[in-house]
Amino acid sequence: xxxxxxxxxxxxxxxxxxxxxxxxxxxxxxxxxxxxxxxxxxxxxxxxxxxxxxxxxxxxxxxxxxxxxxxxxxxxxxxxxxxxxxxxxxxxxxxxxxxxxxxxxxxxxxxxxxxxxxxxxxxxxxxxxxxxxxxxxxxxxxxxxxxxxxxxxxxxxxxxxxxxxxxxxxxxxxxxxxxxxxxxxxxxxxxxxxxxxxxxxxxxxxxxxxxxxxxxxxxxxxxxxxxxxxxxxxxxxxxxxxxxxxxxxxxxxxxxxxxxxxxxxxxxxxxxxxxxxxxxxxxxxxxxxxxxxxxxxxxxxxxxxxxxxxxxxxxxxxxxxxxxxxxxxxxxxxxxxxxxxxxxxxxxxxxxxxxxxxxxxxxxxxxxxxxxxxxxxxxxxxxxxxxxxxxxxxxxxxxxxxxxxxxxxxxxxxxxxxxxxxxxxxxxxxxxxxxxxxxxxxxxxxxxxxxxxxxxxxxxxxxxxxxxxxxxxxxxxxxxxxxxxxxxxxxxxxxxxxxxxxxxxxxxxxxxxxxxxxxxxxxxxxxxxxxxxxxxxxxxxxxxxxxxxxxxxxxxxxxxxxxxxxxxxxxxxxxxxxxxxxxxxxxxxxxxxxxxxxxxxxxxxxxxxxxxxxxxxxxxxxxxxxxxxxxxxxxxxxxxxxxxxxxxxxxxxxxxxxxxxxxxxxxxxxxxxxxxxxxxxxxxxxxxxxxxxxxxxxxxxxxxxxxxxxxxxxxxxxxxxxxxxxxxxxxxxxxxxxxxxxxxxxxxxxxxxxxxxxxxxxxxxxxxxxxxxxxxxxxxxxxxxxxxxxxxxxxxxxxxxxxxxxxxxxxxxxxxxxxxxxxxxxxxxxxxxxxxxxxxxxxxxxxxxxxxxxxxxxxxxxxx
Length: 864
Prior knowledge:
The chain is α/β, with parallel strands linked by helices. It has four domains: 1-66, Arc Repressor Mutant, subunit A, CATH 1.10.10; 89-319 and 749-753 and 793-863, no CATH class; 409-513 and 665-725, 3-Layer(bba) Sandwich (FAD/NAD(P)-binding domain), CATH 3.50.50.60; 514-660, FAD/NAD(P)-binding domain (3-Layer(bba) Sandwich), CATH 3.50.50.60. The chain is built from 30 helices and 27 strands. The strands form eight sheets. It has a six-stranded antiparallel beta sheet with strand order 3-7-8-5-4-6. Strands 13-12-11-14-25 form a five-stranded parallel beta sheet. The protein has a five-stranded parallel beta sheet with strand order 16-23-17-18-19. The two termini are 54 Å apart. The model has no long low-confidence stretch (mean pLDDT 95). It comes from Velocimicrobium porci. Residues 578-605 form a coiled coil. GO terms for molecular function: iron-sulfur cluster binding; metal ion binding; oxidoreductase activity. Keywords: Coiled coil, Iron, Iron-sulfur, Metal-binding.
């Protein structure tokens, strides 16, 4: 199947006269195949260009030989870009070969003797006194003088099959010596210097890839270094799918120092074979998974398909069954909370900021407006009070804002592809940030004259000052993101026109920028406005002077912002009326208290019946008593007592009972569909709509939520868009679904912990709060921040599956706490192809004996 499209009958006749790894010239081979030397030379060169055999010039004469199928011939065939594109069955055969042959090797190769071998990232074993030179990447580069670089054959094959994982293949795998000469000569790779090879190794490590070598040339010898990902590599599949890690592993395994580990999750995210998961560190009354032990392995157990992990490319697991730290679990963006708290405690503020920005580009914003799900879930709250996580994050972000040279992430690639983001709110900005870091040319289109969406237009400055938003957006500008304001897509320009301008994908994140109406009598009279419109007008500097008595209808955070803004724009009094009881109000307790500190009265359990008017202007509101808001299934289904009513005089009414989307003509002439509530339909994981090149997220997809939810969906959209615009990439394969769950906090044993009180940020005196739009909340001092970080219980830790770990060392390069290291556990060395058979036979016999002994032991135990 793999040879048929590119090997003719004549070429096959010549190939059949060759022997594996035996070098011959055309002159040697011509008599054996009954052809002239010239004809034989031509057919051998055709075979070489197809990828069936090597060619090198030795002593001035072209010399040919063929290698093993894998690693060897199949990779070389896939690396012929023209052929693999024309004949995709070449890629399919490459993938199928290992899937069929892989199980036959299970348990048969001792550590170090497999056809491919993991070489640890050198930095990870520098402190290991027993390391051998054959375990160092630098040895192989320094031992050779000629180098080439080519596309990764595994990722190329996966992409041809439409199963790419998002890790791209270009210029990733290095050939040396005879392989480099062959690759350069046949156009499979380009010649590079040793220095360039080292740079490629460095870039691969920075991008989360690990190293493997073909392992059939003998100990300390190889002709290639592959830079691999676990989600596409057909060699690592033997560990992940067949659980046969011995076939590829290095002599090392990962070890976690639980005292140092803070469960930031960086190692878990970057482990290519999912050998690391997040767990817990605190003592518990219930059993807790602290190590992953496998009772059965291929070394001593008969191994069949029932023991494989067939879906390893889509079922990645981030957390052990007993759970991990609640803060990371509860955060919609799953930020490494414990990680940045620990870094802040050590004064490593830039590193802490970098860790936060892996998941959230706007820590200064979120440090002021986040709903603090992490704090609500914080384990410390079961002991006394939760850690002031948001205040710590705010302090970290403030340090960066004060710097002359702020932290700007390194751009990973330069793809040159154009992406359009529609909407400059938190979700659109988040998507733009991560796409820019990845290497795309991003343009953000915003119909308003200012950037930030509801961050700027819907949140008053006394909660989020505009200069903070601008400072965060400045980083996107530094990354090359282009902004076009006062451009409404669907009105001023269409998506179809943008496609013609070269935009290859679109992220729709227009938010919920329109206020909902009540649908009651009198609502359209003068003096009645939605809270959203009111806040936008204030933010844009439009005339919004109020006077007299102002009624605010609603009980959420936006309603409180509206009430507090009303006081600041001239209202004599501001009264809130909401359906919910005090304890049911959706507004955060902190915001309720701030409103009451400004003498805003909150009237609970009242719903509007009608708005009273005189001469077309509001004069009051009639309310009816709300006896319950939710039914027995906690669905919104208010019940009223129509006989219990009150009339409240009003000079203005601001309605803040929810938000809605205003789609305009944005998606006319597209296949996009909407839900009954006018949110857009999209895949909940990939965020792709029915129009393949259009993705959607944030409030436009979920309905009104918090900024951190929108930020999280923006990052997921960026991942999807990256995969979509790159040929052959799947939107789901090899993608982390980030499914976290917390441990049982009720089972934690709290004996012996400190009683340090929670730190409180200073506030401006309450008497001055109503007089201006300045944020009254101060930032922690450094002393306060340090004291607060001491309160963190550090309740999570990484757990290692030592058998599955292949010892690549990628985890050690991502850990900022020196909490994970490679430890030498094995002493396996490579064996030349010619010497492999007796080693394998010996291993197979030993394995059969171990299986037999294990069966006898189990039978004996069962009888007892």
